[in-house]
Amino acid sequence: MNKGKLIVFSAPSGSGKTTIVKHLLKQEDLNLEFSISAASRDPRGEEVNGKDYYFISLEEFKKHIKAEDFLEWEEVYRDNFYGTLKSEIERIWALGKNVIFDIDVAGGLRIKHKFPEQTLAVFVKPPSVDELKRRLKERSTESEDKINMRIAKASVELATAPQFDVIIKNYDLAVALEEAHQLVKDFVSK
């Protein structure tokens, strides 16, 4: 596994990383393909298996861990696993494309450590924790308890920002989108 570039976007839930990644995927000059993560949870809202995530059972996820099928994986919440299958990266590189990730902070840093020269690790910083909470509530996809769990996790995640190559402050979405596009464009053209 040593072919294309890897672009990691990580941030606390509600920071805007998914919006930024979706924008970048539409930019043909970047030659990007989305890395679909595996998840041991059920789909939320409009999520589609094989497009947003590969939804697999907890038992199946643990079998993949034992078989060392993951490039990285994390138990994000109790019995709630997420990970990147090695086969997903190979699939994208076989298409001749660069891989873009929308993953949690721990997974993003693992990829950066495994492929330090090939990876651009970007942390998307929200305006504030209060704004994060407002955005998560606006989604209306999770219970108050789940939102509070995400907010508690956000402070820990925010502390890891300096370990990333670049921090994009998402205070103004249009500015963040432009900054992300330029960063990725410069990185993939090296």
TrEMBL record:
Reactions mediated catalytically: GMP + ATP = GDP + ADP
Annotated binding of ATP, by residue: A11, P12, S13, G14, S15, G16, K17, T18
Chief localization: cytoplasm
Any Pfam family hit: Guanylate_kin
GO molecular function: ATP binding; GMP kinase activity
Keywords carried by this UniProt record: ATP-binding, Cytoplasm, Kinase, Nucleotide-binding, Transferase
Domain Guanylate kinase-like: 4-185
EC number: 2.7.4.8
This protein's record includes keyword Lyase: no
HAMAP family: Guanylate_kinase
Family per record: Belongs to the guanylate kinase family.
Biological function: Essential for recycling GMP and indirectly, cGMP.
Listed name of the protein: Guanylate kinase
Gene (name only): gmk
